[in-house]
């Protein structure tokens, strides 16, 4: 966290700047993929700089004009009263009894209290902005199931729409006024319970469960009435077609009425000091409403028979000393609750849109904002409420409403628990009455009660939430996740660090060996197929794409470009960029420092050193995009400008990496290249050189009936012999071929192993004239088959007899035996005559390979070790080494030259 970021968001204690738009205060509420500290921190900038920020302390420009009472306490208290206080407390007490009612209030308020603790912890951990909770757009109103009342509710809903369209200031003033009215009405209700004596109450007309003319009674303060109301006696709900009431029904109605704890948080963008107002205002409102509800439940149980409370939900009106008071209280409480939810949900919808949580689908909401008021978001929220009103019965709506609110509380507690468990240093809330225990209890309580209320609604809501999370992953830009900070990233960091420490390199065993790849890339634009192929070859192991930049001019944007490249390639790889005085030095840095702990690269892969002009796969991609881009390319051609470059990115949106063009020299010479190869083997790493991978087309391989094989050539053509073709190098090469053959797109190909029969000599003396070459024992085909079987490798064996039958051919190959041993005869090897004979030999070997590679997708060929760097003739040997490898692989399919240094196969279980 930046040192200037305020801990409590107070404009007088830190130079905080708020965004002109309200972002989300509690992005973690809707899912676990929100802010790692629950807030969007933005450090202030000097006044007058037009960069999208304005000073936090200027309420006229930021719209932060609300204090604790008007901005938090009033909307929270009114939302928690809602229609429950005057209409449904009697329904709950009449059915569940006083004991169960108090238990339900205790459970509900404990869940709310633990959730409020999470909210307070998040809201006191930094500068809080607008947006609130990313979940729940539904509010409880007064529908009783008839169409004409739907019209009545629509009128009230539309009046709330008008208030919200005017703005938050009018909402705050309205809330304070309504809270005063509701408080007066509630006090009049308490007084009426104590003052009014026994009386008769009429059955409401819509109650068809009782015969017409049936009257209900009110006893006033009575011990007998209290005794009757202590225990539950569930009946039927006359507003829901006589459905039987149970514990889940009453708790659903109760919880739906007290789910207003986020009303203040949802207005965070309009609060002067959110981090102070939200905890204080919310907790005081929760305490106030809890006391009010408990007193009301006691008075009802003391004075009103259960049958009256079950059969007339408006019984408070006739017993009040001035009946219109109750009507006023119901209308104002319901109006304020709906108003709070409507304006809060619109702010949430606006924040979702501006933060592009689900991509660009909601961009039209941003465009529909006028003077800071999200007009389109308000209208959409109003339309959603209208749709919910069609359900009709409040008790039915209550269960849906309760489950959705509980889901948001569950996500809040889960997100806050995740933050706490990660141990993030920047999570230092000023609210001290918060621990991971409160989060856990709130989470478990919410989850359990969701299924108690309605298992079907709970299951569907969780599925809906998971779908939203999936959509968030698919459509949310990576830049937004980086801006917020991701809880999932913090959790993964915590766990990965722990398991990396447990991954002891001393316990490595060949039985569980897998390739850990470091692919050294010079030009990412020309090696796209190779990058994709190595991603297949890694077999769940570590995959690092390394790049060396010569010099010390550190480009801070370089890593971003490479990450974008990896995203485009859709490979599971890490990127490592290093700056060094030479490429060789940089490669040494990458080999030594890439990875961590036991996850270090064991196989280094390079492209082949040749003179071919690199193919630009970015240009190919751009030309395939659309006809419009082709027109743009043509237009740019006539203008003499590059059609691919735009502020460091080409027109396809990919980074504009440099690429070597015709006539340009390589950044690395042969000597340095071969030195790198020698360094890799000296550092005990397996080595792979890849050539012709610009020809690789995986889609064509999958569809083609012509391409059938993956070839393995376990013979060192620099020193051909058949005493044992399965040495360490051959076994490593075979293992790589088996790995690629296990993948879905390569599985249909047949693995072929070529058994090359050769003549060899025991003489250690270099001969250039013809002589009789003693015949060595030929490696038996049966023994090879048994070896493959013991390694559990299914492959075809093909015998190649050219080496054994052609004496001249064998004589040429003997020259190279001394090349790789680098004996004192190296000077003879470098002679013009022997060089020509070696090239001729490689050309003949190449012909053997090509003749059998017409239907081959990829070939694995034995790579002889390069010359040693300390050899006196290293420069000349390096040039000859690359020249011979070039002749060996010319016109081949995609080819990997392999030199292994470690045992990677095992014949036992």
From TrEMBL:
It is a multi-pass membrane protein. The keyword Transport applies. It holds the Pfam family SLC12. The chain crosses the membrane at residues 66-87, 99-127, 147-171, 176-196, 247-266, 278-301, 321-344, 375-397, 403-421, 433-451, 457-475. InterPro entries: AA-permease/SLC12A_dom, SLC12_C, SLC12A_fam. Residues 148-518 form the Amino acid permease/ SLC12A domain. One of its GO terms (biological process) is potassium ion homeostasis. Residues 529-609 form the SLC12A transporter C-terminal domain. GO terms for molecular function: potassium:chloride symporter activity. GO terms for cellular component: membrane. It is found in: Membrane. Signal peptide: none annotated. Keywords: Membrane, Transmembrane, Transmembrane helix, Transport. The keyword Transport applies. Belongs to the SLC12A transporter family. This is Solute carrier family 12 member 9.
């Amino acid at each position: 966290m930046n040192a200037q970021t305020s801990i409590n968001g107070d404009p007088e204690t830190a130079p905080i700047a708020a965004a002109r738009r309200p972002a989300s205060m509690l992005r973690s509420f809707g899912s676990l993929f929100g802010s790692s500290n629950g807030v969007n921190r933005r450090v202030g900038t000097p006044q007058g700089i037009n960069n999208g920020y304005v000073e936090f302390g200027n309420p006229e420009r930021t719209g932060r004009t609300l204090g604790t009472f008007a901005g938090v306490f009033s909307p929270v208290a009114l939302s928690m009263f809602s229609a429950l206080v005057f209409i449904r407390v009697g329904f709950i007490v009449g059915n569940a009894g006083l004991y169960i009612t108090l238990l339900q209030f205790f459970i509900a308020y404990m869940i709310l209290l633990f959730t409020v603790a999470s909210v307070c912890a998040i809201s006191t951990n930094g500068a809080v902005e607008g947006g609130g909770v990313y979940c729940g757009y539904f509010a409880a109103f007064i529908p009783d199931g008839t169409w004409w009342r739907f019209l009545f509710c629509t009128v009230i809903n539309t009046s709330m729409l008008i208030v919200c369209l005017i703005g938050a200031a009018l909402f705050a003033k309205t809330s304070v006024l309504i809270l005063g009215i509701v408080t007066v009405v509630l006090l009049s209700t308490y007084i009426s319970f104590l003052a009014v004596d026994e009386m008769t109450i009429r059955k409401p007309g819509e109650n068809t469960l009782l015969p017409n003319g049936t009257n209900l009674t009110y006893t006033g303060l009575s011990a007998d009435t209290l005794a009757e109301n202590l225990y539950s006696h569930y009946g039927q709900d006359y507003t829901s077609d006589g459905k039987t009431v149970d514990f889940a029904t009453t708790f659903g109605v109760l919880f739906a009425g007290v789910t207003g704890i986020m009303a203040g948080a949802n207005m965070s963008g309009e609060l002067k000091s959110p981090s102070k107002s939200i905890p204080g205002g919310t907790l005081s409102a929760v305490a106030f409403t809890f006391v009010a509800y408990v007193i009301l439940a006691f008075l009802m149980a003391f004075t009103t028979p259960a049958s009256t409370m079950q059969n007339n939900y408006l019984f408070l009106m006739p017993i009040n000393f001035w009946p219109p008071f109750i009507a006023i209280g119901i209308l104002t409480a319901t109006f304020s609750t709906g108003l709070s939810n409507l304006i809060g949900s619109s702010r949430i919808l606006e924040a979702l849109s501006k933060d592009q949580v689900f991509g660009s689908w909601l961009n039209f909401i941003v465009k529909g904002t006028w003077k800071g008021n999200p007009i389109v978001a308000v209208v959409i929220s109003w339309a959603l409420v209208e749709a919910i009103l069609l359900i009709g019965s409040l008790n039915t709506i209550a269960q849906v409403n309760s489950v959705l609110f509980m889901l948001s509380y569950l996500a809040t507690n889960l997100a806050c628990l995740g933050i706490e468990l990660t141990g993030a240093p920047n999570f230092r809330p000023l609210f001290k009455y918060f621990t991971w225990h409160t989060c856990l209890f709130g989470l478990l309580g919410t989850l359990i009660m969701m299924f108690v209320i309605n298992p079907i609604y709970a299951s569907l809501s969780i599925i809906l939430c998971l779908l939203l999370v999936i959509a968030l992953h698919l459509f949310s830009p990576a830049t937004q996740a980086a801006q917020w900070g991701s809880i999932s990233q913090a959790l993964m960091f915590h766990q990965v660090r722990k398991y990396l420490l447990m991954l002891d390199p001393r316990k490595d065993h060949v039985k569980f060996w897998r390739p850990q790849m470091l692919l050294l890339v010079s030009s990412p634009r020309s090696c796209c197929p190779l990058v994709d192929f190595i991603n297949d070859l890694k077999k769940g192991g570590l995959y690092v794409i390394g790049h060396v930049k010569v010099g010390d001019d550190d480009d801070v944007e370089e890593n971003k470009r490479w990450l974008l490249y990896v995203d485009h390639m859709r490979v599971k790889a890490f990127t490592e960029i290093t700056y060094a005085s030479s490429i060789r030095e940089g490669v040494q840095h990458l080999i030594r420092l890439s990875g961590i702990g036991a996850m270090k690269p064991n196989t280094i892969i390079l492209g082949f050193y040749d003179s071919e002009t690199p193919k630009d796969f970015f240009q190919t991609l751009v030309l395939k995009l659309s006809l419009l881009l082709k027109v743009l390319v043509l237009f740019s051609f006539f203008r003499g400008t590059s059609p691919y470059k735009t502020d460091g990115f080409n027109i396809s949106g990919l980074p504009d990496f440099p690429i070597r063009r015709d006539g340009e020299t390589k950044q690395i010479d042969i000597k340095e290249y071969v030195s790198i190869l020698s360094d890799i083997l000296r550092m005990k790493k397996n080595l792979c050189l890849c050539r012709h991978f610009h020809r690789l087309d995986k889609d064509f391989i999958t569809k083609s009936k012509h391409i059938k094989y993956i070839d393995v050539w376990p013979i060192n053509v620099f020193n051909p012999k058949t005493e044992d073709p399965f040495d360490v190098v051959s076994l490593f090469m075979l293992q790589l071929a088996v790995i690629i053959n296990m993948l879905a797109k390569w599985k249909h190909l047949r693995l072929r192993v070529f058994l090359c029969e050769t003549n060899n000599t025991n003489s250690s003396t270099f001969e250039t004239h013809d002589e009789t070459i003693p015949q060595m024992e030929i490696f038996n085909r049966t023994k090879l088959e048994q070896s493959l079987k013991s390694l559990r490798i299914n492959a075809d064996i093909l015998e190649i007899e050219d080496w054994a039958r052609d004496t001249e051919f064998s004589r040429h190959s003997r020259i190279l035996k001394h090349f790789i041993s680098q004996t004192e005869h190296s000077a003879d090897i470098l002679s013009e005559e022997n060089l020509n004979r070696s090239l001729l030999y490689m050309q003949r070997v190449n012909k053997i390979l090509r003749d059998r590679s017409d239907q081959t997708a990829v070939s694995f060929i034995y790579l002889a070790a390069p010359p040693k760097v300390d050899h006196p003739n290293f420069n000349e040997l390096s040039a000859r080494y690359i020249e011979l490898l070039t002749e060996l692989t010319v016109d081949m399919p995609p080819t990997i030259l392999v030199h292994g240094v470690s045992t990677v196969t095992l014949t036992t279980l």
